């Protein structure tokens, strides 16, 4: 039977089969070709979506806005201070209201239960644009970028995540790797390893797909023979600024730099969901430099701008993949 995601929400990748994930990736490729070739695809004219952001964003917001507009839809953006949700109106009541006016909801925020509740009460497709636990739309862009480099069959490809291996991005990378039969290594200090229940779930999935899921604190051994080296910021949105000192102390050995990249395959690529602290050209980057003396944090400038980096292709792919998710669930 063919894949049909019409009416479904996109809350976390554990809810999707490998065939469904591959369907979304195929669709993303088609949308990318159409966009590149100037082929109009206003397939969802007359529909409207609302984008709810409790945390800041560049890529995710822009991908949803441009994606929705390319599909011919109307878009309403609500930041944390411009709607009643939270302070004066519950998620449940807000969901009832949005469900009466819109065809789909994107939510970026803190609690996974909030995005789940929006889906439960709105009656329309809801897309998770990042919570404290997961970042599922990011994964589609990441896998599309890996496929563009190595071909569509990603089974057995070794991806190593360095750093805060229990954050939203690392969790989702472990899930998508399990679903698609990849070899995933979470590499970081013991204190920042993914939750045991999620590892157990992913290992169960891996039994069916042939994936390998490993956790290690040995950075050089982890990087050996890697096809994809991945990292993310060391203190995520919503975490207190006081975390920086502690994270720098325990994460320094996991910085992705030239030496670490040299341990991977010569053909390896570097991915980062972005934004990244790799220089002093941002307020935060300068603050980290002045406070901790680090010029570049989770990754160095030479890696992020180096010949193995595919970060900006990955960023572009957010739009094609998010468009595919909206189209597949709203058509
Ligand atoms: N990667 C990502 O989600 O980027 P933004 O925070 O800019 O949306
Ligand atoms: N782990 C990061 C991802 C940003 C896209 C955060 O949550 O801030």
Please give a structural write-up.
The chain is an alpha/beta fold and 331 residues long. It is globular. α2 links the parallel β1 and β2. It has 13 helices and nine strands. The protein folds into two domains: 135 residues, 3-Layer(aba) Sandwich (Rossmann fold), CATH 3.40.50; 178 residues, Rossmann fold (3-Layer(aba) Sandwich). Bound molecules: phosphoric acid mono(formamide)ester (CP) and norvaline. Phosphoric acid mono(formamide)ester (CP) binds next to α2. Phosphoric acid mono(formamide)ester binds next to α2.
Question: Roughly how many Å apart are the termini?
Answer: 18 Å
Global geometry:
globular
Which ligands accompany this protein? phosphoric acid mono(formamide)ester, norvaline
Count the beta strands: 9
Task: Report the CATH superfamily of the largest domain.
Answer: Aspartate/ornithine carbamoyltransferase
Q: Largest sheet at a glance?
A: 5 strands, parallel
CATH topology of the largest domain, anyone? Rossmann fold
Count of DSSP-assigned helices:
13
Rg for CA atoms: 19 Å
Biggest sheet: strand arrangement: 7-6-5-8-9
**What's the domain count?**
2
The share of residues in helices is 40-55%
Strand content: 5-15%
Order of helix and strand elements from N to C terminus: HEHEHEHEHEHEHEHEHHEHHH
């Amino acid at each position: 039977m063919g894949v049909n995601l019409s009416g479904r929400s996109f809350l976390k990748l554990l809810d999707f089969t490998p065939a469904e994930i591959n369907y979304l990736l195929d669709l993303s490729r088609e949308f990318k070709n159409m966009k590149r070739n100037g082929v109009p695809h206003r397939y969802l004219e007359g529909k409207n979506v609302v984008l709810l952001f409790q945390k800041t964003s560049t890529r995710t917001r822009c991908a949803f806005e441009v994606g929705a507009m390319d599909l011919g839809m109307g878009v309403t953006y609500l930041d944390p201070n411009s709607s009643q949700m939270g302070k004066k109106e519950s998620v449940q009541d807000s969901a009832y209201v949005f469900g009466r006016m819109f065809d789909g909801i994107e939510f970026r925020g803190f609690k996974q239960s909030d995005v789940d509740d929006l889906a439960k009460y709105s009656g329309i497709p809801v897309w998770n644009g990042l919570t404290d636990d997961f970042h599922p739309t990011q994964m589609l862009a990441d896998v599309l970028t890996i496929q563009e480099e190595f071909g569509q069959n990603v089974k057995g490809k070794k991806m190593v995540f360095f750093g805060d291996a229990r954050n939203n991005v690392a969790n989702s990378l472990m899930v998508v790797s399990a679903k698609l039969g990849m070899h995933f290594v979470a590499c970081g200090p013991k204190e920042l390893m993914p939750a045991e229940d999620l590892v157990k779930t992913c290992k169960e999935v891996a039994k069916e797909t042939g994936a390998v899921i490993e956790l290690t604190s040995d950075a050089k051994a982890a990087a050996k023979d890697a096809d994809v080296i991945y990292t993310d910021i060391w203190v995520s949105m919503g975490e207190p600024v006081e975390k920086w000192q502690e994270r720098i102390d325990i994460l320094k050995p996991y910085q992705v730099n030239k030496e670490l990249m040299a341990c991977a395959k010569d053909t390896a690529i570097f991915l980062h969901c972005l934004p990244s602290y790799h220089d002093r050209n941002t307020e935060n980057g300068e603050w980290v430099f002045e406070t901790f003396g680090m010029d570049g944090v989770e990754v160095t400038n030479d890696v992020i701008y180096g010949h193995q980096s595919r970060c900006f292709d990955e960023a572009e792919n957010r739009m094609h993949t998010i468009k595919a998710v909206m189209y597949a669930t709203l058509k």
